[in-house]
Amino acid sequence: MTRTLARKLKQLERLYASLPKIECKRLCQDFCGVIQWSRIEDKNIRRATGGSLPVIQAKQLLEYMQAPKRMNVDGGVNCPMLKDGACSIYAQRPLVCRLWGVTEAMRCPHGCEPERWLTKEESYHLLAEVEKIWPSENGATDFVLPGSKSRPYSNMDEQAQEIFYAVLKELRRHNERRRQVLGASTGTVETMGRI
């Protein structure tokens, strides 16, 4: 491992250590699906796995979309890092996984509560901080944050990413049309969520 990588991994560890503590029951694996991570997290995960990563294949995503079940349950699109119901990269899991259960927007359905809740803004800030540790070579953002146009590191193969982002783009377009219609008819759209 190079000194640069070692230094950046220490920065990543410090950032992870700054998250609120939570006594996790490890019952949320049904919610582990499509995720994104940063360049430094990709290096960290690949270092721990010997360089290779299992990924969600386009075929799996298409099968799920043709016969949707509850996401990640009974044959949904599970994270390929899950082995026997547990995360095989738990110690190296990316920030988005670590935010589960400690962010107001991603509360644990099994009652686990952190020492304090992170706001959505704090979560976005942490994602941006992880990205700053080792920015992408082309200067693009690693995460699909609001306003982002780039493709992040992911647990999907390239074809699955193309399908996923095409569907996501269409969902956003559909949601925007709904907001416009509802906003025009009610004068407000505060209650509408974003996809």
Care to describe what's here?
The structure is a single chain. With 195 residues, the protein is mainly alpha-helical. The protein has two domains: 3-60 and 69-156, no CATH class; 158-195. Helix content is 43%, strand content 4%. The chain has helices at residues 3-17, 39-49, 58-66, 95-99, 120-133, 158-186; strands at residues 36-37, 82-83, 86-87, 153-154. The chain has a two-stranded antiparallel sheet with strand order 1-4. It has a two-stranded antiparallel ribbon with strand order 2-3. The chain is globular and about 50 Å long. Residues 70-74, 141-150 and 186-195 have low confidence and may be disordered.
SSE blueprint and pairings:
Layout: H1 3-17, E1 36-37, H2 39-49, H3 58-66, E2 82-83, E3 86-87, H4 95-99, H5 120-133, E4 153-154, H6 158-186
Antiparallel strand pairs: 1-4, 2-3
Helix pairs in contact: 1-2, 1-5, 3-6
